[in-house]
Specification:
This protein has no helices and 17 strands. By secondary structure, it is an all-beta fold. The strands form 4 sheets. The chain has a 7-stranded antiparallel β-sheet with strand order 1-2-3-10-7-6-5, with no helix packed on it. The chain has a 5-stranded antiparallel β-sheet with strand order 11-12-13-16-17, with no helix packed on it. A hairpin with a 7-residue loop joins β1 and β2. It is globular and about 60 Å long. The two termini are 26 Å apart.
């Protein structure tokens, strides 16, 4: 996904869904204005929000969504909260019956830097079924995460390939599980 960011190179976003995990890599570069925000917008009273360090958890009943940075090139802070904006049920009008009774909530990660590389793990789980996520971020290698036997990695070295242990694939991302003999690569011409 390519998105414009005012006064910056095009924002690069990469997504990999594998098992119960959604991995997202975002790269913002040459932002002459500084102050990079990574936003989460939702209806304020629909989900309870908890924060622990830089980990966010949104809960509704026994269903949870945990979002945690597994790699960031800059120090991040969390901000935001309930906004003064009412939610709407139509794209072009927010009055009368189209206006909701509550407000939007904006939660965000922020850095004052002009460049940011960020890898987030999004994990959906029911109460009591949370699975730990481990970061793979050491040395000058491709970064990513593991959850149980599932591995997701991105080409963070910029060499057009993803390498981890005995696996290698051309492209911008790779996911695999040796226990289930699954492997996937994205924008690839070769997997070994």
């Amino acid at each position: 996904v390519w998105r414009p960011y005012k006064n910056a190179d095009a924002v690069k976003e990469y997504f990999i869904k594998f098992g119960n995990l959604l991995a997202k890599r975002t790269v913002v570069s040459n932002n002459s204005a500084g102050n990079i925000y990574h936003n989460f917008i939702n209806i304020n009273d629909e989900f309870a929000e908890t924060r622990s360090g830089t980990t966010l958890t949104f809960t509704r009943g026994n269903k949870n969504l945990e979002i945690q940075p597994v790699y960031t090139s800059q120090t991040l802070t969390i901000g935001g909260g309930k906004s003064g904006l009412r939610y709407c049920f139509a794209k072009t009008s927010c009055s009368g019956s189209f206006q909701g009774a509550g407000n939007y909530r904006r939660t965000y990660y922020h850095t004052a830097a002009s460049n940011l590389e960020l890898i987030l793990a999004h994990h959906w789980y029911l109460n009591g079924q949370q699975q730990a996520i481990s970061a793979i971020v050491s040395g000058k290698k491709d970064y990513g995460m593991s959850q149980g036997s599932n591995y997701v990695l991105f080409d963070t070295t910029g060499d057009g390939a993803v390498k981890y242990q005995n696996k290698e694939a051309t492209g911008w991302g790779m996911a695999f599980n040796d226990d289930t003999s699954e492997i996937a690569a994205f924008n690839t011409t070769r997997i070994t």
